[in-house]
Every structure is written in C-alpha cells, then in structure tokens.
Amino acid sequence: MKEQVIAGIDVGGTTIKIAFITEDGEIKKKWEITTNQKENGKYIMVETAASIKQQLESSWELTAAGVGAPGFIDVEQGFIYEAVNLGWKEYELKKELEALLQIPVVADNDANLAAGGEKWKGAGEGARNLLAVTLGTGVGGGIIAGGQIIHGESGMAGEIGHITALKEGGAPCNCGKRGCLETVASATGIARLGLEAVQREKKGYLMEKMQSVGTVTAKDVLDGAKLGDPVAEKVVDEAMEHLGLALANLCNSLNPETIVLGGGVSKAGDFIIDKIKASFQKYAIPKIGRETKINLAALGNDAGVIGAAWLAKEFFVKEEG
Amino acid sequence: MKEQVIAGIDVGGTTIKIAFITEDGEIKKKWEITTNQKENGKYIMVETAASIKQQLESSWELTAAGVGAPGFIDVEQGFIYEAVNLGWKEYELKKELEALLQIPVVADNDANLAAGGEKWKGAGEGARNLLAVTLGTGVGGGIIAGGQIIHGESGMAGEIGHITALKEGGAPCNCGKRGCLETVASATGIARLGLEAVQREKKGYLMEKMQSVGTVTAKDVLDGAKLGDPVAEKVVDEAMEHLGLALANLCNSLNPETIVLGGGVSKAGDFIIDKIKASFQKYAIPKIGRETKINLAALGNDAGVIGAAWLAKEFFVKEEG
C-alpha cells in the first residue's frame, strides 16, 4: 500500500515553499520554486501543481493539499479577495488547484497557517488555544481558539499589528491610522525608534553604526541592547512594553494556552521574551499572567507548509477508530 | 406528537430564570424562582429541576437543558471551578442536573450564553462572529467566533473588563490590577468618575444631585450628560473613549460582524452608542471601523435563558434534512 501524503504549500511573493507531509506531520520532502508574478500571478498554481507532480514519488499517494497565501481569503470557498504581493484579485485559488491536482484543496491566510503549524508540530504543540505573533516587516498574527483558526467576518481576524499602541503622537501606519503596534514593535518600527533615539542622543552603539553604515537597523538596535548600550536598550524596552500590553489585553479576552513569537525580531530570543513577559505580567489578569506560556516559534520557515498540511488533514483526513 | 422544548436556565445570585423554548427559539413559558444560597448552593439545582417538572405541560416533551452560571466553567465536563455568588466550588453542575432531569444538559458561563442568546434571536441575529459586552456593575464579555463560543484555555475568555485602559494612574480593580476598562466604563466606574468630577468642578447637574441625595450614580452621570451638563458629558466622553478604543483593539484582532452592548449603562441608548462609534472608528482598521455593527442588546433579561437553550440545541438537537 502506498504511503499517504499531504501537500503543504506556502505561497510567498518571492518563493513558493512546498512539502510532502504525512498525516502525522512528518516532512518527507520539501523544496522551493520561484514565484512567477507574470500576468497577475496566473502561472503560480500551474507551476506549483507541475512541480508537485514531478516531485511525487511512486511509493506515495497524494490525498489532499493545503495552501497558504498572504491576503484576505474566504476559507469556505477558497477564494482570494486580494493578495497584493502575488497579483491575485478575486481569484478562485481552491478551485484552480483542485482542477490541476484532482485532489481536495483547502486555502487559508499564511499567518493563520503558520499558527496552525506551530500548534501542530511547533512551539505550541497540541495547544487548542494559541496566539501566534510574527514580528517582521510588520506585526502579523494568527489566532487558534478551541482548536479552530479564527477568521472573523471578512477574513481579517488576527490583524493584531493594528492594535493602537499609542493613542496620541504615534507614527503613521500603512493601514491609514497612527500609532499601531506595528509602528513600534515590528522590525521597521524598532529601526525607526532606533533612528529617532540616535538622532536625539547622538551617542553609543547606534551612533557608531550610524557613522559607519549611515543608518540603523532593527538588528542593530537589538544587538546594541544585548551589549548593554543604554540608548538601544531603552528603545527595545519601549517596543516590548507596547507589545506586552497589547498581548496582555488580547489574552485577557482570548485566554490562550500559549503565545508563539516568530519573525525576524524574535531571533533576539530570550532577551526579548523576558522583556515581553515582564510587560505582559504587569497588564494581564494575574491568573492569565501566571499561566500563559510565551514561547519562541520553533518551525522557522517550515511553519507555513506544516500548517497548510495540518489544515488539509483537519478538513479532509478522516480520523481512524 | 408532543411539541419538543428545551429548558433554558440562567442562574443568578438572587433569582434563577427558567424558560421552555422551542428549537426555533420561541419562548413558550418563562418564570423565575429565588436562588437558595443555603449550604453552598446545594439546593439550587434540586429546586430548579423540581420547578421545571412542575411547569412542564403535558403537551410538551423536554429534550434537553442549557444552564448558565456566573463563574469559570469547564464546558466539556459541565464542571464549575467556582461560582462565588452561588457558593459553588468544584461542582458537577452538568452531572447533577442530568441526574435530576434525565435529559442531556450543557452548562456555560452566563455572559457567554447571553452572547449566544443575542446571536440566536437578538441584536446579533444569525451572526457567526459576535462580541457581546455587558456594561453593568462590572464590564463582562462573551465572544462568538465561527459560530462557536470562545472559552480559552481555562474558561476565562471574554474577560474584556480587564483590558488595561489606563497604563498609569488608573483606579484599583477587583482583579488585582489597576486601570482596567471596568474601572472606567462600568456603572461603578462611571459613578466613580462622576464623583471625582463633581468634587473637582463643584457645579452643574451632578453638584445638584450631590447636594440633594449625597452621592452620584452612573445613571445621574448619563442623565446629566444627555441634558447637556458639561461636567457629566465630559465623564461620559472619557468612559466611552476608553471603551471604543478597547473594542477597536479587540475587533482588529477578532473581526466580528456585530458588537452587542447590554447591561445597565447601555440603557442610555443611542446617546452612548454614538460616542462609542466615534471612538471605535478612530482606532479600528478603517475597513473594520466601517463594517462592524454596534447594536444595543435586544433581549434584556431573556438573553441568558435563550442563549442557554441555543447552546443545548447546538449540542444535542440534530438538524433535520
């Protein structure tokens, strides 16, 4: 009998990550192809399906596929309202891939699937209630409650980057508001706060970076803070104070078992986890402050494909027994 | 054939509200009995079951019961960790009532069931994603996402009253923190802010109340604000600004279709809804600010029993066809 595998697909603006994954969550094979953005992304699924067929070994049976994409998605229909980075607009993702592969397909937002991956096999393994937070260029989120991904009325649930961190005097955000969490706790936000700090203070680790390289990145700020530079550490403290408050307020309402932190900023590791925890515990209901785990993401770039396979398993694979 | 009915039960510290409700949500009969708090509430379910048997008409068949109680509940087990107002602690609510009535029983937190009631037959009718907010002595909440009540890891989901509204200088809260939403937007909070304002300003509608009655209530503040008293209106504006921000931050993460506002403070009606909307739209992602409905609760005191029956129907009644 052939071994049954699920295809997990994570479509990004530059590459498409693909993996064959067993129903137990074991990655049998994983690879990437380049995202073909030509003609509003119309070749993306064609090339993905061709690559999947080519990579499938004869001893495997492909039973289903899950696919994650950056954008707003109607999960029931597998319909993309818009995925700006890919050129897709009002695109029948699920139907197209089902026609190409002749297997059932489920599609969801990539941040939601990263949350699903961490829940299934990562830093929130087995959690029925989980909040996944990505601190990258922006601040993204995925919410799992009662074992299910929360989508909200128009697929916008999890947009925690647009929680208002600064009621007044905040920096403008891409969403049209000011003072969003994203403007202070993303890599972009930390770099901006670092630049402002060095222009104000004109000294220390960040000033050296400024003089040698001409700018300051989020990594510089985090590195400087770790080295004990007071200007850099004050910036990190400010960013993590805002993040801890926003997470506490969310957890007072959602009561997850675990918060999983991923994305570039999370590479600073326990150094920022400790700062986030201090702020979180200050603002959370005491029981929630004590009991909520805050973990670093464990799956890295594999979270998306594993989460996509998890969702396909949940949708299509019958439990035995 | 007998008409099938579900018992909806809403256990409060003073009275127990009970209703027979059809599977379509029609209340056939409703009544109340007094809550017997003797011996840690051990007679509450005995007396509830006896009353149900007595009120059941011979033309009805009782198929299931739903019961709401104030406290933290393990819904799968129907187990009450603690319901302080009733004297219950580690109490097998579901098992006890099932033994008494010989029908399947489901139990949940009363605020969650009020949300369920408004979702089924009230101001959020049919919504699959709904946030119910009760502005009473405290600020309570119930979250429905993807058609399901969100419980969180230890039954604490929906505790939106403990979102931190004031990072600094806030009043102490029962939860042990300071500056919780509940300290400014509940009836208690509005009364406190009103008292502080009149002691500071010593004039206007609230000063008259203070001089004639010796204190100021939340209703006085809301009445004064409606009459155009500037001291009172400033208090209401402050409270609703905090509430609108907290709701916007939650909705940026949960993307509900509808927010339903109930409890004593909500009796001020459109006057406060308009203020909440103004703050909400300032802080929500623009699309969420435009699309999220903010409605007054429609079911009043019936929300709990209707929500209890809804949950029992969801758990136990098979859909036809």
Automatic annotation (TrEMBL), chains A, B:
Q: Name one GO cellular component term.
A: cytoplasm
Tagged with keyword ATP-binding: yes
Q: Name one GO biological process term.
A: glycolytic process
Entry's PROSITE patterns? Answer: ROK
Gene Ontology terms for molecular function: ATP binding; glucokinase activity
EC number(s) for this protein? 2.7.1.2
Top-level taxon of the source organism: Bacteria
For this UniProt record, give its keywords in alphabetical order, as a comma-separated list.
ATP-binding, Kinase, Nucleotide-binding, Transferase
A Pfam match is: ROK
Q: What class of enzyme is it?
A: transferase
This protein's record includes keyword Nucleotide-binding: yes
Family stated for the protein in its record: Belongs to the ROK (NagC/XylR) family.
The name this protein carries in UniProt is Glucokinase
